[in-house]
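Backbone-to-sequence.
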């Protein structure tokens, strides 16, 4: 038996333009604290979920790369009794245009997500091939200005348009984004209530974050935050000098030893995952952990015992 194919023609299969996540909106916001116009993507709660008050905000760093992953994951978790409460997911990204736009975007995130200069890393990236070339006009160390942008510019703009809880905010960052999140945790911990740091660049500036944590411990008896740290088990094998896995385990151990009374800390090493593959599962597990939703339902799995 044969089947004939009838051409459907252009009228039946029309291009509608660039795809977007349904239900989300995009905004541009020129910053006073950073010489940058940011692209802000916003996903409100799904229509099936009725908020019973102001919405917590989940900020997503590297929004131009991973907003879709976080927004769609959060969308499903909000419809799960053991998932998330209604939240507003907000991606912070960049508008890179023209020739060299990939390197431009890479440089902008390096500027904003790093709290200091790392001369060894910068020298390596100046000579790296595109898109991982750090443009000569961009220097790392802009984390303070970027945090000021989020707190004093972005949050008020969101509050004008959405019913958000300005005192209930979460930050999600991967790699240099994880570095930024933990830098904020140790320097300004009440800036966010929850921190999801995936594969954080703990190697930055010869272990700057370990020094910042020690300074924080010497200055304060508490670290009031709910924190999820994660990494893929294969990351250290890919780049042994970065110590992605062992550094994360060491930092988690130090934080547990501090016995901060109001620090809730979870860390997870995901088996068989690399730096580029770990993010989707880490976001799902991390959001549930920092929102304290893991215990909402009991597991009926019959797992092998021994």
């Amino acid at each position: 038996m044969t089947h004939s194919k009838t051409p459907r023609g252009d009228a039946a299969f029309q291009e509608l333009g660039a795809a977007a996540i349904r239900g989300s909106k995009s905004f541009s916001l020129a910053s006073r604290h950073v010489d940058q116009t940011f692209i802000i993507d916003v996903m409100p709660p799904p229509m099936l979920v009725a908020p019973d008050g102001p919405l917590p905000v989940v900020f997503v760093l590297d929004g131009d790369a991973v907003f879709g992953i976080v927004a769609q994951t959060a969308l499903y978790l909000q419809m799960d009794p053991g998932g998330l409460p209604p939240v507003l997911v907000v991606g912070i990204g960049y508008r890179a245009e023209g020739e060299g736009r990939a390197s431009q975007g890479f440089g902008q995130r390096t500027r904003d997500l790093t709290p200091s200069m790392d001369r060894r890393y910068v020298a390596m990236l100046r000579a790296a091939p595109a898109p991982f070339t750090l443009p000569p006009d961009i220097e790392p160390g802009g984390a303070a200005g970027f945090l000021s942008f989020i707190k004093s510019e972005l949050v008020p703009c969101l509050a004008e348009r959405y019913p958000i809880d300005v005192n209930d905010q979460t930050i999600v960052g991967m790699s240099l984004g994880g570095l930024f999140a933990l830098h904020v945790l140790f320097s300004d911990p009440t800036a966010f209530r929850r921190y999801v740091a995936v594969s954080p660049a703990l190697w930055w500036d010869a272990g700057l974050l370990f020094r910042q944590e020690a300074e924080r411990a010497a200055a304060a008896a508490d670290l009031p935050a709910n924190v999820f740290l994660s990494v893929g088990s294969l990351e250290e094998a890919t780049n042994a000098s970065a110590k992605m896995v062992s550094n994360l385990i060491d930092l988690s151990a130090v934080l547990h030893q501090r016995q901060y009374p109001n620090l809730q800390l979870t860390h997870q090493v995901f088996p068989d995952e690399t730096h580029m593959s770990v993010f989707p599962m880490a976001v799902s597990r991390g959001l549930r952990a920092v929102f304290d939703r893991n215990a909402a339902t009991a597991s009926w799995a019959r797992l092998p015992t021994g």
